[in-house]
Design a protein that fits this description.
Layout: E1 7-8, E2 14-15, E3 24-26, H1 29-37, E4 44-47, H2 55-58, E5 62-63, H3 72-77, E6 82-86, H4 92-99, E7 104-108, H5 115-126, H6 130-148, E8 155-160, H7 174-181, E9 184-186, E10 210-214, H8 222-232, E11 236-239, H9 241-245, H10 251-273
Parallel strand pairs: 3-4, 3-6, 4-5, 6-7, 8-9, 8-10, 10-11
Antiparallel strand pairs: 1-2
Helix pairs in contact: 5-6, 6-10
């Protein structure tokens, strides 16, 4: 078993505190935001086109492609010392190709909001931002406690991420874990596919009480609400996908958003039915 005091990433690699000049390339939007919130924006030399937060900061940082279609030579030209990647969001063959010339590749894979605590500690320890990491951890612990205290009954939801084909999330995903923290149980049950496609005639849809249409990766909007309500026969609501899916420093704000959103929908349901 790895030493609990070591700086181990999701691939089991042990990292050491950075020495000398630090040049970071991030292939993950959530991690780009986290790096900036740790006070490392000045060390960030490359990011993907999907790394859009914090906007004023990242617009000055070179784009090196997307999360899946990275421009290898563009990364090479930046001479990075550290590369930030994620198991779900980046291709393994791309990461292996980059590892041939980037000295330190940091692999991440948070699957629940609590996993961000280890992520803060990992990046804070590697890049000498321990105090900033502790501040983020304290904020997340507080948000987790608030979300778990939400006094609303569990509700089964279908969380839509794509259209044509219709796609949702499995319970093993980070999104599902975030929703579960505020009492939203995602359907279908675990199928072995993390982001399954489905048809509106699937038997498990009978258990769905509400449909949530995410703003990303598919940009669901008001025009889709009527279509989904008709197909699913359940209340349909738009939800901010960034707040549900972005880990890192956004996790605490995401949990507070979800808790407030659940409370708001619960109060609206009480007003409509007259029950409490």
């Amino acid at each position: 078993m790895p030493d609990s005091d070591g700086l181990f990433d999701a691939a089991g690699q042990c990292h050491v505190p950075a020495r000398g000049e630090v040049r970071i390339v991030s292939l993950v939007p959530s991690l780009t935001e986290l790096v900036c919130d740790l006070g490392l924006a000045g060390n960030l030399v490359g990011r993907t086109g999907f790394c859009i937060h914090p906007r004023a900061t990242v617009r000055r940082i070179l784009k090196i492609g997307g999360t899946k279609d990275v421009k290898l030579e563009a990364v090479r030209s930046l001479a990075p010392t550290h590369l930030l990647v994620n198991i779900d969001e980046n291709r393994r063959d791309t990461v292996e190709a980059l590892a041939a010339f980037v000295p330190h590749v940091i692999v991440t894979h948070p699957c629940a909001p609590e996993d961000n605590l280890a992520l803060y500690r990992l990046l804070g320890g590697i890049f000498g931002r321990e105090a900033e990491a502790r501040r983020l951890a304290a904020e997340l612990e507080s948000a987790l406690a608030e979300a778990r205290d939400l006094a609303l009954p569990p509700e089964n939801v279908l969380y839509l991420i794509w259209r044509e084909p219709w796609m949702t999330v499995a319970p093993s995903t980070y999104i599902a874990a975030m929703l579960a923290t505020v009492g939203w149980r995602t359907l279908p049950p675990e199928t072995g596919v993390r982001y399954p496609a489905f048809g509106w005639d699937a038997p498990w849809l009978a258990g769905v009480e509400r449909v949530l249409l995410s703003s990303e990766p598919y940009s669901f909007g008001a025009m889709h609400l009527e279509e989904v309500a008709r197909l699913g026969g359940r209340p349909a609501t738009l939800i901010d996908g960034e707040m549900a899916s972005w880990y890192g420093s956004r996790a605490a704000a995401g949990l507070r958003y979800l808790a407030a959103f659940r409370r708001e929908l619960g109060e609206a349901r009480v007003k409509c039915t007259g029950y409490d």
